[in-house]
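Annotators were shown the component list below and the corresponding predicted structure, then asked to write short factual statements about the assembly.
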Amino acid sequence: MRRRPDTELILLARKGSTEAAEVLFDRYWTYAWRAAYAVTTDSALADDAAQEAIEKAFGALDRFDETRPFGPWLKRIAVNRAIDHLRRASRQAGLGEETATLHAWSVGEAADDDLRQWAVADAVAALASSRRTVIVLHYWLDLPVEEIAGILGLPVGTVASRLSRALAELRTALEEEHVV
Amino acid sequence: MSSELERLLRDARKTLPEPDAASTDRARERALVAVRRRRPRLRLAVLAGAALVVALGLGVGLGSLIAQSGSAARGPTGFGFLPEPGWFALQSAVPANSDQPAVAVAASVPFAPDDDNRGLADPSGLPYSTLLRLPPDGIVIVASALVRGEEQRYGAPYPEHELPLRVRDSVPFIQYGTQVRPEQPLGQYQLRSAINGYDVDLTFYFGTPRPSSALLAEAQGQLDRLVVSAKPSPATPAARQPDAVATASAPGIIDRAFVCVPAFVGGIQQFEASAHKGTGRRGSSWDRPAFAALSTTIAASAALAVYNELAWMTAGRPSPSSNVIDPRFPEYAFPIRAWGTLAVNGKLCRSTSARVPLGTKGLVRREVGAFDDRYDCASPRVLVRVRATLESRTSLKTYRGFLRTTVPVKEASLAVRTQTGKPLVYAEVFESGKARLFTAPGCVPD
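Structure shown to annotators:
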């Protein structure tokens, strides 16, 4: 079956096609949720943030410029929502006894590779949230430094220095564990 | 160097989990509703009005459709449901103690034959066949009660409540991170309460992910008829009493249950149970303290060998040279003082509220010597309970993928069951250096 381009699905959804909207949803939901999870490291917060993002995006299809890619637009909304939720949650409560993990809970066939990636994900999760956020936004969600600065409301130089310090910290932690 | 690290970082994004089915369904609905809302207001208003009329009609219809012919189990003795008209109830045959829960189940639909053992509930409490065919307007309430022991008062999440409980106090709940019926999700909610000396777990299953107010009211009607008898007799400690030395201080107790996933080995999921007694006593510490562990095989590399451990427990103070695994290479040692006197693999195990009794019933005692005696047991997911009396109060903290404590253990026990409740392993370790291991007869020496 022909893969219908996003633009076609968006135009159909604007006319009220729930079928087109569902295809678009299936194409991008996991992507949006993982972006929210990467930022929040919390399934419940990611659920809330990603659901709000998808609702907002689908409700604003009329205003979306269909000549631009849909995925990055949705990701940006999901990241913004996730950061809002993260800030709210950090104001409300301290950390529980079990810190969050950033990796899924299953072992694939290439277990050693999985463990190496887990070690990296654990090291990222162990970073202070300000450093973790810039690492996640830059390396996992592929956002350029300038865009991260815009999202976080920080000067570009601050984001760059946080990235640099976070990388140094990660390198130290992963060298200790013989991962790099 | 930096580019290698950056490549690793980018690769690590693959480890991110995916949303669960319930969240996906909710998001899909919100997306579609958002798209529909963009239609003209008048049409929306007409649709909303029509929906309201239908919903009201359904609510009235549901109320009048409740049959009056529900069969009832025997009346609850201490703990159970008095069935509402049209409801069905089961309860466990034995009363609760601090180790074994009493279970009661109520359903607004007849129980599937598999689940109804002449009015008695399955010890697991889960009427699985009934849930698999639960219609959209069906409700099942599963309640379990455990006599509250001393160890359960340390911050256990059971707030004091009085009867009747309220459905609206429950929270969405997916046990073990899975839906009972993923292709047609149920609404699953949990409510925990401390009532009359019992820790009571209630799980509500609705035939639809988002139960209507009519369904919630119906569930509340049955919940109003939950009986939890007056204060039970004093709790029986779940584990052996601490010895005289231990009782002289105020020990901390850790008592947690987990669901763990053994790795595939030769096509089947299996884990190893092992234990050794303490050796090399030096004053107050041990070179090799009494030890029991569950392990599986996911990593071949010596550097990562510790990640093969699902859980381990030691007893007695470890020396600086005590290791979780006897090191094949000195650079890959995993000192107990750092990795934990008691630990559970956070990558392969997750917390669960499932009850796992500690005991040797149905198990065979195995010899435990100075070296690890290992037994292979095959099972997919397993329930693991660890219970330890420690030198001071503590909790399990995350350390390199494990939940662990470094506080020395006075004595500890570990039990493993299948998810259907079949006992597989029981082990005990004591600060005297003694260790005991029991396994199911089907577990074979490695």
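Statements collected:
1. Chain A has two domains: 1-100, 101-180.
2. Chain A touches chain B through 59 residues (CB under 8 Å).
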